[in-house]
């Protein structure tokens, strides 16, 4: 039987707010991974470029037959590429993005545990649910302040497949909840508000369970 003292409407509103936060965190950590991969590839290609030009310069010096202007050009190119790499420092930028992605992913995992273990159980109580929600939301705000900025171009490389990559079961995917307020409004997906809602927090849909019990009575 359903709990007559439990406010299912309040729970639904809380469930939507939880979904907003969880969806935002999901897209954010995926975007950071996109950025980290891009900087890693850029760092690797810059290394290849510098080694390649330096190798050509070495060969030209060994053969001692290349024109002086070519040697000067290769030397200048190597110096410019090395200086730009030190200033841009894509390797460090990649590390920063990976650290941010890991932090947001841990937060998303905590949101999922909260949804499945606490928000889905009316015995937890609305007060305790709200308290836990505010703790997780505060962690997200702190991360937003502490982590490097994530640009819109990383979001543009993402699509709704992010929901399939977080390790949820088919049942979980169908029951996740809440339209997300995505960072900077840059994230675009084709899911309706109700579809996103069912994907993020459906495990915590207590109103449906209550309706079924009322019908049985």
Would you mind describing this structure in some detail?
The protein is mainly alpha-helical. The protein has one domain (8-216). The protein contains 8 helices and no strands. Helix 1 (8-63) runs antiparallel to helix 2 and helix 3 packs antiparallel against helix 4 (126-146). It starts with 7 loop residues before the first helix and ends with a helix. The model is unreliable at 167-175 and 177-188 (pLDDT under 50).
Compact summary:
By secondary structure, the protein is mostly helical. Helix content is 73%, strand content 0%.
Shape: rod-shaped
Largest sheet: none
- Which structural class should the secondary elements be placed in? mainly alpha
Helix proportion:
over 70%
Strand content: under 5%
Instruction: Specify the number of helices.
Output: 8
Overall mean pLDDT score? 75
Helix and strand succession? HHHHHHHH
Sum up the structure in keywords.
217 residues; mainly alpha; 0% strand; rod-shaped
Question: How do the helices and strands line up, and which of them pair or pack?
Answer:
Blueprint: H1 8-63, H2 68-88, H3 90-119, H4 126-146, H5 152-156, H6 170-174, H7 193-201, H8 206-216
Helix pairs in contact: 1-2, 1-3, 1-4, 1-7, 3-4
């Amino acid at each position: 039987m359903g709990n007559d003292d439990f406010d299912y409407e309040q729970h639904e509103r809380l469930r939507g707010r939880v979904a907003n936060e969880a969806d935002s965190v999901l897209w954010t950590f995926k975007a950071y991974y996109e950025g980290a991969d891009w900087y890693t590839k850029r760092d690797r290609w810059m290394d290849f470029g510098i080694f390649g030009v330096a190798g050509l310069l070495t060969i030209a010096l060994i053969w001692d037959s290349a024109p002086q202007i070519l040697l000067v050009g290769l030397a200048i190119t190597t110096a410019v590429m090395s200086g730009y790499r030190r200033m841009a420092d894509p390797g460090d930028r990649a590390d920063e993005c990976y650290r941010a992605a890991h932090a947001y992913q841990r937060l998303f995992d905590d949101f999922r545990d909260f949804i499945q273990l606490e928000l889905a159980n009316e015995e937890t109580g609305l007060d305790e649910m709200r308290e836990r929600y505010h703790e997780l939301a505060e962690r997200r705000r702190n991360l937003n302040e502490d982590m490097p900025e994530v640009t819109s171009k990383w979001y543009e490389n993402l699509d709704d497949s992010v929901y399939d990559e977080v390790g949820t079961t088919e049942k979980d995917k169908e029951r996740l909840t809440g339209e997300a307020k995505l960072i900077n409004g840059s994230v675009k997906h084709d899911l309706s508000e109700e579809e996103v809602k069912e994907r993020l927090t459906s495990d915590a849909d207590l109103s449906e369970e209550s309706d079924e019990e009322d019908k049985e009575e």
